[in-house]
From TrEMBL:
Official protein name in the record: DUF2071 domain-containing protein
Cross-referenced Pfam families: DUF2071
InterPro entries assigned: ADC_dom_sf, DUF2071
Signal peptide: none
Species this chain originates from: Bacillus thermotolerans (Quasibacillus thermotolerans)
Length: 244
């Protein structure tokens, strides 16, 4: 049994009764969140999903990290996969009482990940030019061209507090402690679950040099500094999608 299953009481969605199929290790994770009008955001979601809100406000999240390791169940890590950066644009939804994540896009440099995730999960992965480095701070750059639009993100970030586990009811618990995601393909809604131990978070400072990511939203939403959190490392296991 994977060591993550020694912690299950913290889950905010039911644990699937099917075997997990893949594990990934993420590092240097940055969560950035901005408030957005729930009605405005709802029109970008599949009709079956309802935008979730925290104290009446919906949130858009930009999450950057390094994928350090990928392995399939009962197999050794895929040694030919070097670490690669990833940028996820997401929001938070509810369906049949399950709090979950909905991804607008997931950008990576790694083509096999794009093909695999699109095929298995129906997730909107995109190919992007990206770079990541670590010095006195973490530096992340991404550029993705789609539908004649260029979405770019250029940031540096650093943790600024001691580590802690978010308490239920706190904003960071509501946004980050989610263990399900919904996708829609071929006019059918699917639920996919993940599992990992609770996030150990630190408050973070994000210095945004340039941001045209999430181009479907007004740029005025991103004028304010985001609420930012950092996590050093997390290993997660993935379950196959099921019809919701």
């Amino acid at each position: 049994m994977h060591e993550a299953f020694s912690h299950i009481t913290h889950r905010t969605a039911p644990l699937p009764d099917i075997p997990w199929i893949m594990a990934q290790t993420w590092s240097h994770v940055l969560f950035m969140h901005w408030p957005v009008n729930a009605v405005q955001l709802q029109r970008f979601l599949p009709e079956e999903l309802t935008v979730d809100t925290y104290e009446g406000t919906a949130w858009i999240g930009l999450v950057t990290f390094q994928v350090q390791e990928t392995k399939f169940r009962s197999l050794l890590p895929l040694q030919f996969l070097r670490p690669f950066p990833q940028l996820n644009i997401r929001t938070y939804v509810q369906h049949k009482g399950i709090p979950a994540v909905y991804f607008f896009s997931l950008d990576v440099t790694h083509l096999p990940s794009i093909l695999g995730a699109r095929t298995l999960y129906g997730l909107p992965f995109r190919k992007a030019d990206m770079s990541f480095s670590s010095q006195t701070a973490y530096f992340f750059q991404s550029s993705c061209v789609t539908k004649e639009k260029r979405e770019e993100l250029d940031i540096s970030y650093t943790p600024v507090s001691v580590g802690y586990i978010a308490e239920p009811g706190a904003f960071e618990h509501w946004t980050i402690e989610r263990y399900a995601l919904f996708t829609k393909r071929l006019n059918k809604l699917f639920l996919s679950c993940i599992h990992h131990t609770p996030w150990k978070l630190q408050e973070a400072k994000a210095d945004i040099q340039f941001n045209t990511a999430a181009s479907f939203l007004p740029r005025s939403l991103f004028i304010k500094e985001p609420i930012a959190h950092f996590a050093d490392r997390k290993e997660a296991v993935f379950f196959p999608p099921q019809k919701a």
